[in-house]
Amino acid sequence: MGFSDDFKKIGTTLKQYNRVGNSIVVPMVIEIGKEVNNQLFNKSFELNY
């Protein structure tokens, strides 16, 4: 997951931090979506506060 080994960092350090902070990792978003779906639509899921 994440950036490839040949990812080129261009710009100032601040711009690089901005870009990395604003980027998304698609496989992670997919897994989060699966878990949200599981918790919303699984009748046996129980909220524990």
Walk me through this protein's architecture.
It is a single chain. The longest helix has 16 residues, at 26-41. It contains 2 helices and no strands. It has helices at 13-22, 26-41. It has a domain at 25-49. 0% of the residues are buried. With 49 residues, the protein is an all-alpha fold.
Strand and helix map with partners:
Elements: H1 13-22, H2 26-41
Q: What tags apply to this protein structure?
A:
49 residues; mainly alpha; elongated; 2 helices
How much helix, percentage-wise, in residues?
40-55%
Q: How widely separated are the two ends?
A: 32 Å
User: Rg to the nearest angstrom?
Assistant: 17 Å
Strand content: under 5%
Gross morphology: elongated
The number of E-state strands comes to 0
Strand and helix order: HH
Based on secondary structure, the structural category is mainly alpha
Number of helices: 2
What can be said about the biggest beta sheet? none
User: Averaged pLDDT, please?
Assistant: 83
Low-confidence stretches: none
TL;DR of this structure?
The chain has about 50 residues and is mostly helical. Helices cover about 55% and strands about 0% of the residues.
